[in-house]
Amino acid sequence: MKLLEYQAKQVFGKYGLPIPRGSVAGTPEEAKEAASKVGGPVAVKAQLPVGGRGKSGGILFAETPDEVAEMAGRLLGSRLKDIEVRRVLVEEKLSIRNELYLGITLDRGNRSYVVLASTEGGIDIEEVAAKTPERIVRHVVDPLGGLRPYHARWVARRLGYSGGDMNALTDVILRLYRVAQETDAELTEINPLALTDAGFVAADARLNVDNNALFRHPELAQMSQEAEEAELSEREWEARGLGLTYVELDGDVGVIGNGAGLTMATIDTVTLHGGRPANFLDLGGGASAELIGTGVSYVLSDPRVRALFVNILGGITRCDETARGVIEARERTGSGKPIVVRMTGTNEEEGRRLLKEAGIDALDTMEEAAERVVALTGGR
Amino acid sequence: MVRFIDGGTRVVVQGVTGTQGRFHTRLMLDYGTKVVAGTTPGRGGQEVEGVPVYDTIAEAQEIHELDASIVFVPAPFALDAALEAIDAGLDPVVVITEGIPVRDSIELVARAGLKGTTIVGPNCPGLIKPEESKLGIMPAQVFREGSVGVVSRSGTLFYEIAAHMTRIGLGQSMCVGVGGDPVVGLDFIDVLKWFDDDEDTKTVALIGRSAVTQRRRPPVSSRKAASRSRSPPTLRGGTQCRERGWATQAR
Fold first, then answer.
1. Parallel, antiparallel, or unpaired for β A185-196 and A199-202?
2. Residues B141, A186: C-beta atoms closer than 8 Å
């Protein structure tokens, strides 16, 4: 789950991280007012949930509030990186002496968090890692002991800072670590972290929160809606609201599975047999008849879908629940589109009996079912 | 030292009174697993499928000898439950629960490491020694006793492949679903090492998943894998998805 820059900066500000003066605007008038409040030259920044914004013209600089209004008018409502710009952040233009990179993210290999810092700020850190890996300082956080001031100091020293700047940088690192821990961040990033005459300032801000931890952060879950809605297609956004893990594709075979691995393999198999999947829908573990019904109705309601392939391997998900969900959804939608069900596992016999009574065939293997559904859509 | 299960392993089910805990307690008992106790805070004194329920593991241990735990406790409380099992000296601890915050998993795995406890999961199907015992939620009917060790990141894809193997007459010695979360306890290398020392395991099948990076590189070090070919039979599901660049979204 992602926050937009202005939201991440609000969170950073609460933790005492230095952020530029400014405010967010949804109209040219609001942008003008924001610029007047800041006073002097400002940056006008499109709020997008993706990187590479600067290169695609999403960051503009202006001297006067009138100019700001004009620029905001240009950005708002336009599409950058295929996403509609709905808000801009207007903030003081910084006079930057130095640009650093600072990030804290998950380190799967070491099963902990890692602090990444570099003197090469302002550009994509992946690029730095590829071209000049020696310019990245890494510190793997002790999973039980946490990040101590001396660890942060060590990072600051390795970046070449000393004296007051070193102490200030140490403080920024420790505060960002607190943000990461207390918001359950998968990734939190300041790129660039600007060194100005007034000290360090977070010129940009990124905060991605672990979806699994949102129950601990209802306020962040609320905030993240804006970025999510901007990024997802209309159908994906709608599916999210129904509690479905759904990704839109461009074919005509609806695909529903349980478990990401099996659902991905199902898409591979349909493609292998010459079919074109219309979507990915993972019901996850232990789906109820109700959730299965919701998923089936949702995919059947897609006008592009000509046949549906439901592939369930019952472990924690039960085949009888699956059958009930499929049957109920078919009745509710009144859809005449063919449904091919492949299911095996927990409560398989009861599930098959229910489907048979309803006149739906349950096939044994994924291959058979994939062939059948591809034949139904007139594939190869 | 990695610890798995056999027919003698005595098991406590944590979160035994929930829908999933209750359902899979029944299925594990039917399979022959020695489920001797269950826990749910506030439900001590009840019974689930003939298994006595306690408020705490410590109380269960006053009455029963326990070896291993399986955790069905909801995500917000799963870390606490697993730590309770580690403290009680149970090993392995299989964490079925889906949706545990990664910060909790990091703490869980680190604390288990201090004590040398084997953690399987979180968000995993668990362990099965076919036709003997299972500590998990996998559909037992797709497994048969045999000599192939199976280790998988994926859940349902793991069952899919076991079903194929069984259909063509390849039984399994031990199957381990390590879970697909970013941070899990056991990883491929740990399991492959265990297979190397296991007399019943002659070959190994490894099931990965696109969008999941491994902690360490897979298994040229595995003797049994290497004895058949340079690397064990592996399957990476989701190639279509990876090409389309959205696999990570579908975690």
1. antiparallel
2. no
